[in-house]
C-alpha cells in the first residue's frame, strides 16, 4: 500500500539564533509534535552568504535536557563544545549527533576557517526526542564525518541516499539511536521516480532543500516539508527536477511531551526539576 501525503508544512517566518544562524523553523514540539514524533523540532539555516570576519559568529552557552540535537551541514562549517567533553568541527556532508539526555551546556559557532573565508552557509538542525526511560541517560556526542556515512544507490536510478541513521537494505547508518529511525540525505535525479519501502506505522516526512518532488497531487518545493500519512509502507515520489531531500522516518514514541525552551520532558514536574538542576550548576561547564 502506498503512502499518501497528509499535509505540507512551510515556515511562517525566520529568526536569528545568536548571530550565526538565520533559521526558519519548519516544525516544533509546540505545533505538530504528535504527527512528527519522535522528531521534536527542525530548523533550516540558510542558504545565506556570510562575509569574511575575524569575529566569532554563532550562539553562546545554553542548556539542553531530554533529547538529542542533530546538525547536518550542507555548506559552511560549525564548531561545537559541550560540558560533557564532547565537541568537534563539522563541514559539508558531516553530521553532529549530540545526546543531551540528562543535561549539558553547549555552544555552537561558525568554525574558524569558514568565518575567515566567508561564503555560502546552509545547515539543518533536528531535535530528536528520547523515550522517557532514556531522558536521564548520560550525555554523549557523535561526530560523523562524510566518509563515515555510507551511500547507497536507489532503485530505478533515482539517485543516492546517504544513510546517516537507520538502515537501508543491508546498509546500516553511521549514527547510534535510542529508538528506531531513519535519517537519510537523498540526492535525486530529474525525470526519475523514487520508490522505497518504509516501516508500517512510522512517521515519515520529506524536506526539500533544492529542486522539487511530486507526491500524488502535491508538489513539494524548496524549504517545504511533506508529512506523510502513517498508513502504508511504500513511498513513491516523482522527481521533476534534480533535488536534495532530507528524509525523516521513525517510530512514534506515544508519550507525553512537556517542553520549556531547551528542556523537553514528560511532565511539568520534570521541567521544574530541569530548571532547578540547571540553575544549581548540575549541567556542568564547558572546559576551555
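Sequence proposed for the structure above (288 residues):
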Amino acid at each position: 500500500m502506498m503512502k499518501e501525503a497528509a499535509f505540507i508544512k512551510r515556515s511562517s517566518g525566520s529568526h536569528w539564533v545568536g548571530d550565526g544562524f538565520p533559521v526558519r523553523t519548519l516544525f516544533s514540539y509546540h505545533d505538530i509534535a504528535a504527527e512528527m514524533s519522535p522528531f521534536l523540532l527542525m530548523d533550516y539555516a540558510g542558504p545565506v552568504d556570510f562575509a569574511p570576519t575575524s569575529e566569532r559568529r554563532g550562539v553562546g552557552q545554553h542548556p539542553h535536557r531530554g533529547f538529542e540535537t542533530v546538525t547536518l551541514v550542507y555548506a559552511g562549517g560549525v564548531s561545537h563544545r559541550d560540558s560533557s567533553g564532547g565537541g568537534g568541527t563539522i563541514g559539508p556532508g558531516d553530521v553532529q549527533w549530540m545526546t543531551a539526555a540528562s543535561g549539558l551546556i553547549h555552544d555552537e559557532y561558525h568554525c574558524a576557517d569558514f568565518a575567515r573565508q566567508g561564503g555560502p552557509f546552509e545547515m539543518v538542525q533536528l531535535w530528536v526526542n528520547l523515550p522517557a526511560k532514556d531522558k536521564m541517560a548520560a550525555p554523549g556526542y557523535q561526530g560523523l564525518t562524510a566518509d563515515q556515512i555510507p551511500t547507497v544507490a536507489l532503485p530505478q536510478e533515482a539517485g543516492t541516499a546517504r544513510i546517516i541513521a537507520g538502515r537501508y537494505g543491508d546498509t546500516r547508518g553511521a549514527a547510534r539511536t535510542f529508538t528506531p529511525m531513519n535519517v537519510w540525505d537523498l540526492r535525486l535525479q530529474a525525470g526519475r521516480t523514487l520508490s522505497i519501502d518504509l516501516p508500517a506505522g512510522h512517521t515519515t516526512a520529506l524536506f526539500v532543500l533544492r529542486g522539487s518532488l511530486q507526491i500524488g497531487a502535491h508538489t513539494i518545493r524548496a524549504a517545504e516539508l511533506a508529512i506523510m500519512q502513517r498508513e502504508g509502507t511504500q513511498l513513491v515520489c516523482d522527481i521533476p527536477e534534480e533535488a536534495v531531500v532530507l528524509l525523516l522516518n521513525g517510530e512514534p514514541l506515544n508519550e507525553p511531551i512537556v517542553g520549556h525552551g531547551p528542556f523537553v520532558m514528560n511532565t511539568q514536574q520534570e521541567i521544574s526539576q530541569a530548571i532547578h538542576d540547571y540553575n544549581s550548576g548540575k549541567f556542568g561547564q564547558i572546559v576551555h
